[in-house]
Amino acid sequence: MEMKKRINLELRNRAPEKVTELVLDNCRSSNGEIEGLNDSFKELQFLSMANVELTSLAKLPTLSKLRKLELSDNVISGGLEVLAERCPNLTYLNLSGNKIKDLGTVEALQNLKNLKSLDLFNCEITNLEDYRDSIFELLQQITYLDGFDQEDNEAPDSEDDDDEGDEDDDDDENEAGPPGEYEEEDDEDDGASDLGEGEEEEEVGLSYLMKEEIQDEEDDDDYVEGGDEEEEGKCSRME
After folding, report:
1. What is the band of 24 on the pLDDT scale with cuts at 50, 70, 90?
2. What is the pLDDT at residue 14?
3. Which of 33, 83, 153, 193 registers the highest number of CB atoms within 10 A of its CB?
4. Span 140-168, average pLDDT
């Protein structure tokens, strides 16, 4: 009696039509079936009933908007066809730690067309030879089994990770500053270096010209001195 009251206490004083997430972990079901959960929870998207000694899904209500269902650590051994009938939009299903033993039981999940992630960890079925390959072949709509895809890539923690990554990229771009600033600085540097090269060329040119003038003066002096000696020689011969 106390067990039944505990699960009803979780559901009491709630407006079922407004509830989108419901966690009933570690409560106790009545006679291995769900108590207090009904069709009025029409907006429910996430439901967790881990470790509530659940043996059957026969009384699971119709929850057309339910996307994630946690049923780990119960004693469910079959009857999974109910899920496709009453929760057709499930994308994530956790049945780890239950009494699921064979592929025939899991075959009932083929009608969950939107199912992307299935967890059967710690169920007897995982001891079957080629367990993973068999499940992926049987349920071709799923991407992840026990948290990993067929190439052993781990499932992401959240669907929002990519969006956060994009925001970080945008922040990095903003911190880097608007394009064009560095280009203008580069242009200025190029202009400065062009000017420096021009000045060096001008200095080299002046030095070269000055050297030419000095050389011309020395040549003129030599020429004059040579002429004077010739004139002195002529005078001596005349005497």
Report:
1. very high
2. 63
3. 83
4. 76
Torsion sign, CA atoms 27, 29, 34, 35: negative
Query: Looking at the chain, how many residues does it have?
Result: 239
pLDDT value of position 29 = 80
- Cα 50 to chain centroid distance, Å, stands at 30
Residue environment code for 76-104, b if the CB has 16+ CB neighbours within 10 A, otherwise e:
bbbebbebbebbbebbbbbbbbbebbeee
Confirm whether 212 is domain-assigned. Answer: no
Express each pLDDT in 176-186 by its tens digit. Answer: 444 444 444 45
Distance, in Å, from the CA atom of 39 to the CA atom of 28, rounded to the nearest integer, reads 20
Domain span at residue 53? 3-145
CATH number of the structural domain spanning residue 125? 3.80.10.10
Query: What is the Cα Rg of the chain in Å?
Result: 45
Q: How far apart are CA 50 and CA 22, in angstroms?
A: 12
DSSP H helices, 2-130, are 2-11, 81-86, 103-106
pTM, rounded to two decimals: 0.63
Q: Cα–Cα distance between 202 and 135 in angstroms, integer? A: 82
Output the six-digit token pair for 127: 């001891």
